[in-house]
Design a protein that fits this description.
With about 90 residues, the protein is mainly beta. It is built from one helix and seven strands.
Amino acid sequence: MSDWSLNGVTVDEPPEKAVGFIYRITRLDTGRKYIGKKLLQFRRTKQVKGVKKKVLVESDWKTYYGSNQTVKDEVAALGEDKFKREIIKFCF
């Protein structure tokens, strides 16, 4: 799997208090780039003892390849190793 990197360093966990990040995905053979944003957590409603409660849930950011269908199709067809995933900036 192609890991996320920030300034050439692999990112396993986001910094404390970060809510999301801006990213760039580059297709290595063509140099084509896709830029987007991703939230690290989202709110989900969960029912606890008959009461609805909002809880924070971690997003799928570690395996995320963007929302663009073309990019997702290319990743599925070519493989993750043909793409570079970079975090441009964490947002707080």
